[in-house]
Amino acid sequence: DRTPGSREWDIIETEEHYKSRWISIRILYLTMFLSSVGFSIVIMSIWPYLQKIDQTADASFLGWVIASFSLGQMVASPIFGLWSNYRPRKEPLTVSIFISVAANCLYAYVHVPASHNKYYMLVARGLVGFGAGNVAVIRSYIAGATSLQERTSSMANTSACQALGFILGPVFQTCFALIGEKGVTWDTIKLQINMYTAPVLLGAFLGVLNIILILILLREHRVDDSGRQCKNVNFEEASTDEVEVPQGNIDQVAVVATNVLFFVVLFIFALFETIVTPLTMDMYAWTREQAVLYDGVILAALGVEAVIIFMGIKLLSKKIGERAILLGGLIVVWVGFFILLPWGNQFPKIQWEDLHNNSIPNTTFGEIIITLWKSPREDHNEGPTGCPIEQAWCFYTPMIHLAQFLTSAVLIGIGYPSCNVMSYTLYSKILGPKPQGVYMGWLTASGSAARILGPVFISQLYTSWGPRWAFSLVCGIVVLTIMLLVAVYKRLIAFSVRHGRIQE
Asked: Is the pLDDT of residue 33 over 80?
């Protein structure tokens, strides 16, 4: 990257403008980090908390709760993106974060109503997702405030900050697990502070801090693909070096293809993220508290892995290009899900297995079920562990060994961040130096649609047919995506390269 002080840079951009531009970009890195912490800080505890507050909720409803976040984001992203094209980016960013703060506070009170608590959780997560629509604003700002030379590095840094937030979210959640399910209660305002509500209260506090930083430090900046300052309706300072935005047609086929690729990448990770907790509880007979703790540690480790991948991508992309990394990432993801397919002749523990093993020899199967139904739980807080008898596939599907699961998680943790950052980096380059708020809004909306369909798809399929069918279909989807990428490979080039203004 060029640095302030060099002769070439001084011709294009003043040092004062450079410093202001990069301070604003770094503020958005921090915004992405703080927002990601707020989004992810409860992800592993949603399923146990849902079971605790509403006994009518099952694994299929979990998919809808997680999908509600993405539905809110899908609706909000084009709105905030359009808003950012015509008004200072401070406005949509501040409003969106405030909505997330309010939604986190609502989540802390979903236990209060006497009934239908699961629907209050559904609404709370949907509003958090609506606030998450600011991702489109952040990406469009960074795409417009960086040259082609700086773009991949800046997008990788954005993703690294997001990944770091997703690391610390589960870490904080894991630490709060030490409080336990009971915690303490503030009767005056009917607030329970326990392992489920403490994380969202911290997320709300971080959101308030985020708003303050944006209002104080963020400034508007736009440059063209070469790094020259552009005229911008949102730009607050006049400059004699401003240039008009280059004109030209955007390759709409490349735009649509990239949206589809981004959809599939987010779809795959959303379903993996959703199924981690039910899968580990079914396969390894973990309790709710164990699932929150262990799965939080696993996702935190994947977050660390993702940050390392993002840093490596910045160097690797200069040698082999973004398209090759995207293709390689999809192949690695396919291998990860193929490894996750269940094999062998060892089966998961069934929830009534302990009672069956300890029953008297002449007890009939019907008597066992009646005894199970009437018998009190060994742990009133946790309940039985293992694969539920309601899921018929538990009786004939081999278990996924822990080594299988961890190996698959590592591979998905390599492939997903590579595909994620490369897809929207390519997208920003395809769009060129024009305002990208609306386009980035549609990209974020396609990712949100994936996060809606992914959890619903996997929760329904997993509950009804089990992991073998679910992960086999995922492998098929990834193969089709690889074929699409190969078909449009030559069209995924930068706007300025396509129009002959800059050499690839």
From this structure: yes
> What is the DSSP code string of 402-469?
HHHHHHHHHHHHHHHHHHHHHHHHHHHHHHTTS--HHHHHHHHHHHHHHHHHHHHHHHHHHHHH-HHH
Give the separation between CA 213 and CA 211, rounded to whole angstroms: 6
Helices 252-284 and 402-431, axial angle in degrees (round to 10): 160
CB within 8 A of 295, min separation 6: which ones? 44, 170, 276, 277, 280
Cα separation, 347 vs 332, whole angstroms: 28
Rg of the chain over Cα atoms, rounded to whole angstroms, equals 24
Q: Which residue has the higher pLDDT, 407 or 245?
A: 407
For residues 375 and 388, what is the distance between their CA atoms, to the nearest angstrom?
Answer: 16
Read off the pLDDT of residues 318-360 as tens digits, 9 standing for 90 and up. Answer: 788 888 999 999 999 999 999 988 887 888 788 764 444 444 3
Q: Are the C-beta atoms of residues 145 and 158 closer than 8 Å to each other? A: no
Q: Is 250-351+385-503 CATH 3.90.45.10? A: no
- What CA–CA distance (Å, rounded) separates 97 from 207? 6
Question: Could you tell me the pLDDT band of residue 475, with boundaries at 50, 70 and 90?
Answer: very high
pLDDT digits (tens, 9 = 90+) for 421-445: 888 788 888 887 676 778 888 888 8
CATH 3.40.50.800 given to domain 12-232: no
List the structure tokens of 84.
């950012």
3-state secondary structure 34-62: HHHHHHHCCHHHHHHHHHHHCCCCCHHHH
Stretch (H or E) spanning 193:
strand 191-193
Query: Structural domain boundaries of the chain?
Result: 12-232, 250-351+385-503
Q: Interior CA angle at 211 toward 210 and 214, to 5°? A: 85
Distance CA 257, CA 260 (A): 5
Cβ-count burial of 1 within 10 angstroms (0-12 exposed, 13-18 middle, 19+ buried)?
exposed
**So what's the pLDDT on residue 155?**
80
SS3 call for 314: helix
Query: Distance between CA atoms of 489 and 319, rounded to whole angstroms?
Result: 17
pLDDT tens readout for residues 214-225 = 998 888 877 765
- Please tell me whether residue 502 adopts helix, strand or coil conformation: coil
C-beta atoms surrounding 305 within 10 Å: 19
- The one-letter code for the residue type at 98 is F
Please indicate, yes or no, whether the overall pTM of this predicted structure exceeds 0.70.
no
pLDDT tens digits, 161-207: 877 787 778 778 778 878 887 878 888 888 888 888 888 898 899 99
